[in-house]
Design brief:
mainly alpha; MetI-like fold; Amino acid ABC transporter permease; transmembrane helix; membrane
Length: 222
């Protein structure tokens, strides 16, 4: 690299990292938390609710999984104003990412619940528990442990997917990189630098995921 490129790299590193810590990570956490609540609710509806609600839940999952996330963000931020619904970039991003996490996460949660042996239900009923009590005290805790690895992978993917928020003008890390590129005319350098920071975040989250999985495995074994 030339001396100018080294200077640009050094000058842009902290603004990019700051944008990642202050905007990318909070956006990921909020979207994942809301999406996880939606995932559990959708899974419960599709497994144990009336048929009409099961169809609604299935339709929601079908729509979200069958259309690109980029298109969904465009509809929310650029399309809804055409019918009088104007939403800020941040809220639009949260809605889009939460709906995505909810749809994909609901399949993870649903599969985890189904994987619990029916003997667990029978044991709970033999103790006098109702269906709701068995689900809350016996089934969901076990399903949660089964769901941790795939949900952890979903969160790591979400952190990377937040770069799509740049197209709806939300100034997260990738949008910050685009703005610096517009001033310096160094796209390769800046986008590689942003990729390095995304890689750092993903690696850190992967380590935390591995630690949590080991702890849950010890708990399960006990």
């Amino acid at each position: 690299m030339s001396e100018r490129q080294i200077q640009i790299f050094n000058d842009s590193f902290w603004p990019l990292l700051k944008a990642g810590v202050l905007y990318t990570i909070p956006l990921s956490l909020i979207s994942f938390a809301l999406g996880l609540l939606l995932a559990v609710l959708t899974a419960m509806v599709r497994l144990y609710s009336w048929q009409v609600f099961r169809l609604i839940g299935g339709f929601y999952v079908w729509i979200i999984r069958g259309t690109p996330l980029l298109v969904q963000l465009f509809i929310i931020f650029y399309g809804l104003p055409m019918v009088g619904i104007v939403i800020s970039p941040f809220v639009s991003a949260v809605i889009g990412f939460s709906l995505s996490v909810g749809a994909y996460g609901s399949e993870i949660v649903r599969a985890a619940i189904i994987s619990i042996h029916k003997g667990q239900w029978e044991a709970a009923y033999s103790l006098g528990m109702t269906r709701l009590q068995a689900l809350r005290r016996i089934i969901l805790p076990q399903a949660a442990r089964v769901s941790v690895p795939p949900l952890g992978n979903s969160f790591i993917s979400l952190v990377k997917d937040t770069s799509l928020a740049a197209i709806i003008t939300y100034v997260e890390m990738f949008r910050q990189a685009q703005q610096i590129v517009a001033r310096t005319y160094e796209p390769l350098l800046l986008y590689c630098e942003a990729a390095i920071i995304y890689l750092f975040f993903s690696t850190l989250l992967s380590v935390l995921q591995n630690v949590s999985e080991r702890r849950l495995s010890r708990y399960s074994a006990s």
